[in-house]
Predict the structure.
Amino acid sequence: MIGVNTLQEFVVARQADFAGATGDLSRLLTDIGTAAKMVNRHVNSAGLSGILGVHKANGNTSKNVQGELQQKLDVYADDTFTRVLKSCLKVGGIVSEEQPGIIHVDHSQRGEGRGYGKYMVCIDPLDGSSNVDVNISVGTIFGIYRRKSPLIDPATTSDFLQPASALVAAGYVLYGSSTMLVYSTGGGVNGFTFDPSIGEFFLSHPNMQFPAEERVYSVNDARISNTDPAISAFLADCRDRGMTARYTGALVADFHRNLIQGGVYLYPGSFDKPEGKLRMLYEAQPLAFLAKQAGGETCCHHHDLLDITPTSLHQRTPLFTGHPTAIARLRTMMAASAHPIPEPAGVKVLR
Ligand code: AHM
Ligand code: MG
């Protein structure tokens, strides 16, 4: 890859790895990079541009489909990503954390005469947005599926309800001490760092893999008092092994650190909420795909997450992802648990 440096150059060069590739996915990935630059600019100047705090519509605070308060930056990031994605001829539909239903993208109405694009994009436009007001990292998570239904009609829910193993590409943007875009199209994971003086993402972390050592566990320990006791036992074992705790409250930041340093992220379900908090389509599945590509593993309480077909657009799931041997130990301990968390409703396992 000598001489290949920018995100755009890299994406296009990688296209040659897929026989018959048309460049459509490359175009979509570079458009995501463009939207990420726009959101990055706002995240980095949020304190100066009056964009901190809770979003209000007609004087009232607004909530998303999950009933969560929307921050101003949630709304800005959602607007930006959906606007850029809708302008991409390859996109036929979008599911966003911030919007209740499928956003259909009909290009024939723009006089393009091409109907709907072939890619379905699932996106969490601003993950961990409660961190914004306190100047801590936030992120964007995306997953891209190939549409199954004919391109002539609007996409259907089942075009989105595909297992993580069917993802064509997935990635995240981390707005941290520097801004990074990390993605995979199935041939490994590569990370790009944004150079604000040039306005480009440059390849900085080629072929990212979980290191051999297990160093970190990431969990909100306020969430483990009412869950499977095997998880507490697993965490005690992590401490005995000399691992340390790190938790930012932004999944992207925690996942990224664990990928680089060797760690595991846990967000369990509880006895009163077995489905946990995190969303399957635009949080868990893209990160499960990336983890696998980087040599890691991902599960919920009872299954490998790659084996689950979602049953609703905003489905939630318990999530355990990261270092492969840590996940293997956790799975063994949860499988032997005397008090397992019941299977959440709507879990459909592939095999
Ligand atoms: P969000 O998408 O509404 O920001 O929620 C997801 C976030 C994750 O980034 C983070 O890991 C988790 O929620 C934190 O939840 P908690 O505050 O319960 O620890
Ligand atoms: Mg999120």
About this structure: The first helix runs from residue 7 to 15. The chain has a mean pLDDT of 91.
